[in-house]
Each structure stands twice: as C-alpha cells, then as structure tokens.
Write a structure and sequence with these properties.
mainly alpha, about 0% strand, 6 helices, about 80 residues
C-alpha cells in the first residue's frame, strides 16, 4: 500500500499505529484503496479504528486548535 501511495512504509505504518491518517492524505488513500479493489470506505479512512463512542462525541468538550490563524497571531501580539 505504501508503494502505491508513494509514501515511505514507515509513514503508513505510523498512521496504522496511531490510528490516524493525516487529513490531507485521506482522499488519496481512499482513491488508491478503491483502485486496488479494497473494501474501503471514506468512514474507514477518517476513522481507521472505528467511530468514536457516541457518548464521547456528544459531550460539550471545548475544541482547541493548535494552529492559530494570522488574525489570532495579530491579536496576541
């Protein structure tokens, strides 16, 4: 799979270990899997370890972004 994706095997292995495929790679992973005839869906790519528990997803936990926008950088300065 790594070869077909044009990725280092260590990268693909890390995605599997972490249970996370980087968002920018997900469309390509899905397209390659489909072209290879693998029974993969978009949900499999977005949630490789299965959907989060509904109770956890329903919580009002704050969402934190660790990549501030340019406007946020200006406001912080």
């Amino acid at each position: 799979m790594a070869r077909k994706l044009g990725e280092a095997p260590a990268n693909v292995s890390a995605w599997k270990t972490q249970g996370r495929i980087p968002a920018q790679k997900q469309p390509h992973v899905l397209a390659v899997a489909v072209n290879l005839g693998l029974p993969v869906t978009a949900e499999n790519v977005v949630f490789p370890l299965g959907r989060p528990d509904a109770d956890v997803a329903a919580t009002n936990a704050p969402v934190v972004c660790d990549h501030p926008t340019k406007a946020q950088w200006k406001d912080a300065a």
